[in-house]
Amino acid sequence: MKNYIKLQFPKEIPASDLKKIPGVGANMEKHLHNIGIRCIADLRGKSPEELYHLDCLKKGFQDDRCVLYVFRCAVYFAEHEQHEPEKLKWWYWKDKEYPEKEDN
Predict the structure, then answer these.
(1) In-domain check, residue 31
(2) 2-7: long-range contacts at Cβ-Cβ below 8 A with a sequence spacing of 24 or more?
(3) Measured in whole angstroms, how far is the alpha carbon of residue 103 from the centre of its chain?
């Protein structure tokens, strides 16, 4: 009989404050943990586009762009103390850039 090693993977990720971000539930929290984001403070100064690209690379496929929109919302949430209610909806960021560029 062969000996096999059974690998153990955590069923749950450690508690964090990421779920305080609008649009971030258990699934999006896993996306963020997968790319090294463990708490809201880790999002400050990050590029949502780079986070999305890294997330896709780690998974080996291009994920739905809604993930990018949630990342934009999450970085906005992390970088501002006062939040515009409309900007706390992930779909607000669908056709926007972060940080937003002013139209002149």
Answers:
(1) yes
(2) none
(3) 27
Cα dihedral across residues 67, 92, 97, 48: positive or negative: negative
Rounded Cα distance between 58 and 52, Å, is 10
Strands (E), the chain: none
Tally of domains within the chain? 1
Cα separation, 17 vs 20, whole angstroms: 6
Residue 21's closest CA among 80, 66, 65, 63?
80
Residue 17 forms part of a structural domain = no
Instruction: Tell me what pLDDT residue 9 has.
Output: 43
User: Is the pTM for the entire model greater than 0.85?
Assistant: no
Peptide bond into 48 cis (omega under 30): no
Whether the Cβ atoms of residue 98 and residue 74 lie closer than 8 Å to each other: no
pLDDT at 82 over 80: yes
Token pair belonging to 16: 């964090």
